[in-house]
């Protein structure tokens, strides 16, 4: 008794049926039937022929072109984060003379720019520079103004502790004088401290009414009456002193035309120079 051949066992050579078509050669070459229980060689069924599918042509799929995927692109340069707002504000205030705000905003901007990497350092420095220039200008202007005010002709320059010649128009109540005399033109008088011997003391200064020059006699009468009334108010005890005389300086016709309408009232002692004030 014989058993049928195993499943899948190839028939013996020469037993293939022919149909008249030319026999195609076996692409795999002649094969030997495997023994019972053995698997066919792996090269025949489990893997493709070498050199066809098992290998990839070099430079096509197995490798990446240099400079495309195999290398990383160079890092991007750091980007600025805009211009600092305090730097802009410092420049604006520096241009228009805001010294304090320009300085504060300038220092804040420099600190933030260094920490945040922002732009605007030049603007902050310019704002600080302009604030310094403004400050220097203010100081120079103040010094010039101080010198100008000290030399101003409209400001009295004499005090009760110094001796100096003072223009008649600059005399003020409380100043003591020397060099008083009857004259039609008196421009300057020596002012001395009232603690030193002096001839007279200024006790009132007032203006005559506006208008045309009323004449020498009328001007003298109005000046005298005005001084008498003001002496009683300034020093009531001195007004009752029989040795006290009133000396007044009034405008002339020529000085009236120049706008001088002031009257200066001076209390004088008929006994000579005295010390102290008439209000003592």
Automatic annotation (TrEMBL):
Residues 152-265 form the Septum formation-related domain. It comes from the Bacteria. The keyword Transmembrane helix applies. SUPFAM superfamilies: beta-sandwich domain of Sec23/24 (SSF81995). The chain crosses the membrane at residues 86-110, 122-148. Residues 1-15, 24-33 have a biased composition (Pro residues). Residues 34-71 have a biased composition (Low complexity). Keywords: Membrane, Transmembrane, Transmembrane helix. It holds the Pfam family Septum_form. Residues 87-141 form the DUF4190 domain. Residues 1-82 are annotated as: Disordered. This is Septum formation-related domain-containing protein. It comes from Phytohabitans houttuyneae. The lineage of its organism: Bacteria, Bacillati, Actinomycetota, Actinomycetes, Micromonosporales.
């Amino acid at each position: 008794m014989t058993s049928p051949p195993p499943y899948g066992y190839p028939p013996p050579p020469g037993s293939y049926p022919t149909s008249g078509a030319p026999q195609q050669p076996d692409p795999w070459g002649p094969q030997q039937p495997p023994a019972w229980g053995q698997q066919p060689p792996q090269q025949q069924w489990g893997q493709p022929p070498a050199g066809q599918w098992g290998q990839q042509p070099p430079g096509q799929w197995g490798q990446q072109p240099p400079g495309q995927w195999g290398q990383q692109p160079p890092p991007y340069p750091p980007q600025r984060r805009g211009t600092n707002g305090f730097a802009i504000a410092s420049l604006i205030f520096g241009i228009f003379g805001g010294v304090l705000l320009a300085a504060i905003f300038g220092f804040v901007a420099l600190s933030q720019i260094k920490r945040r990497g922002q732009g605007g350092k030049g603007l902050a420095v310019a704002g600080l520079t302009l604030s310094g220039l403004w400050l220097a200008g203010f100081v120079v202007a103040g010094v010039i103004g101080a010198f100008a005010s000290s030399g101003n002709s409209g400001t009295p320059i004499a005090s009760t502790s110094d001796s100096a010649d003072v223009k008649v128009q600059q005399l003020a109540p409380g100043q003591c004088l020397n060099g008083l005399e009857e004259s039609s033109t008196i421009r300057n008088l020596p002012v001395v401290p009232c603690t030193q011997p002096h001839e007279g003391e200024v006790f009132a200064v007032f203006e005559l009414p506006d208008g045309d020059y009323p004449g020498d006699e009328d001007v003298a009468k109005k000046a005298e009456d005005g001084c008498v009334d003001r002496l009683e108010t300034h020093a009531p005890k001195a007004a009752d002193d029989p040795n006290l005389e009133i000396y007044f300086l009034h405008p002339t016709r020529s000085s009236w035309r120049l706008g001088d309408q002031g009257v200066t009232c001076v209390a004088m002692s008929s006994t000579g120079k005295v010390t102290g004030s008439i209000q003592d």
